[in-house]
Amino acid sequence: MSDSESASLPFRHVAVIGLGLLGSSVARAARACLPGIVITGYDADPAVRDRARAIGLADTIANAAGEAVRGADLVVLCVPVGAMGTAARELAADLSLAAIVSDVGSSKASVAAALGAALPGHRIIPAHPVAGTEQSGPDAGFATLFRNRWCIVTPPADVDAADLARLVAFWEAFGARVETMDAEHHDLVLAVTSHLPHLIAYTIVGTASDLERVTQSEVIKYSAGGFRDFTRIAASDPTMWRDVFLNNRDAVLDMLGRFNRDLAELEAAIRAGDGEQLFDHFTRTRAIRRSIIEMGQDDARPDFGRADHSRAGKETVSG
Amino acid sequence: MSDSESASLPFRHVAVIGLGLLGSSVARAARACLPGIVITGYDADPAVRDRARAIGLADTIANAAGEAVRGADLVVLCVPVGAMGTAARELAADLSLAAIVSDVGSSKASVAAALGAALPGHRIIPAHPVAGTEQSGPDAGFATLFRNRWCIVTPPADVDAADLARLVAFWEAFGARVETMDAEHHDLVLAVTSHLPHLIAYTIVGTASDLERVTQSEVIKYSAGGFRDFTRIAASDPTMWRDVFLNNRDAVLDMLGRFNRDLAELEAAIRAGDGEQLFDHFTRTRAIRRSIIEMGQDDARPDFGRADHSRAGKETVSG
Q1: Do B253 and A270 touch (CB under 8 A)?
Q2: Nearest residue in B to A226, CA atom
Q3: Measured between beta carbons, which residues in chain B are less than 8 angstroms from residue A285?
Q4: CA atoms within 13 Å, Cβ hemisphere of A98
Q5: What's domain B186-304's superfamily in CATH?
Q6: Domain at B9-182: CATH code
Q7: Average pLDDT of chain B, as a whole number
Q8: Minimum CA–CA partner of A274 in chain B
Q9: pLDDT tier at B317 (50, 70, 90 boundaries)?
Q10: What are the CA-CA distances from residue A297 to residues A23, A131, A289, B223, B228 (Å)?
Q11: pLDDT tens digits for range B161-182
Q12: For A189, which of B188, B218, B301 is closest by C-beta distance?
């Protein structure tokens, strides 16, 4: 590594703790986007460490969290939000006071509290890249996961401005767009854009699995009517999502209450045969998808561009 | 057209009534998969007829429904389920008694009743291809929409076996897999695999649009956390979906009742901090997605193979 390369890096050495979908994506993105950075990794599961070594995820995969963070100037905790405190305590003794400690957890107030308690006096700046897939484990990650996605950083009030700038530069190097806000607001926003959608998807997939008069085979066969969309989200990692609901309980219950009231209103309209109310509601919800596509936050192709909807057939019309 | 080609066609002349996403896809698939078949089309909206002519959707786009069905041996009604009766009455006088009348509606008991009342003595075989996208209109259709999708046919008890075989052959020519069942069972199955998912998606997108403490701009920016998946379904045609809920009310309310009970259970688990119950539920729902992918009913790639999740980044790991 030349001096000029190293000078432009926001960090010299990143330690990634937890090597699932997110952790392995952080490691891959660092390798791809920050040439010259030293990458060490650790996972509590020996099988995941073995796999991470086999696929060359990092320069070194350590057998202990402390070993992984020794000499690191950035530590990114990529474990379920309920495991943050334990993971932090495990590496505390080996962590430099100069190192920045961050994470990728989906709830932020509880993570800030857990890290603050485990690592007093350390430079903690929680973060949440709003990106992912329904897959899990070290093989599921990829370097472009964060490209064109938002990363929300929730710095404490007394954050060092230079520390914050370095963490922002780290995420921007991966192609992410960074926004800062306080942890409580993050938790409210994500309750509606992520946590409630997951709760509802998990629920309906469970409902469909438990019917007597409709078989599971029928549910699967005719899932292209809409149901299959929900099964993707409901295939997400159970441990991660259990922890999200336990750690962002109040905001999730608040959003769920609003959803329940809105659903009861539509139910009443169906029961009453009130076509006008249904039509008005369904028209209103159309616009928001256009905005999401215009903001580059979803694939503009019909049906997310799924493979089985090849547009090849269109040519036959004029041909 | 040679005699041998024409002999292998299940129908000589198909009339497509309603030229939106489904109707235009039927016309395109007929053009692509049944070479030699005569295709006529009609839509109640003059602007849609003009557009259909401009893109050459059919051999003839008629200015009246009766004109479109004259001489046809198959008529496929591709209008919202609430408009089936009116559309059928409009063409009744010009319809041959030898013609088979079918449709593509998402609810079947109400359509069978409406067509039966409008076309007494005619050969009515309702059908429902379980396929679609969130887009609407004559430009949204494509010839491969039905490929590898299921088409459910709900024949009356006294159906002529040869008629049924011809309709099955028509859909199979498009690459669809055909299943027959009674209309009531169809309506129950689709209530869970299609109608309830749409109702829930419409609800949550409405809920997210109406918040005070979270702005619409935040909902859009952070939609990749899961919410954006729901916006696709909630962008579906409002008229079509209003009619579905009004015409399959009992089955939808039945499934909605079950969903509400299951959601209340998960809500109670979150409130009580019962991580074990959440984990068990989230583990159970994972398996069904694997089955859907194994059955070829969804894209196996992570995140439906969305374009912004290019897997190109993977190569950087070993490189």
Answers
A1: yes
A2: B194
A3: 202, 205-206, 209, 231, 234-235
A4: 8
A5: 6-phosphogluconate dehydrogenase C-terminal like domain (1.10.3660.10)
A6: 3.40.50.720
A7: 93
A8: B246
A9: very low
A10: 22, 10, 10, 7, 8
A11: 999 999 999 999 999 999 999 9
A12: B218
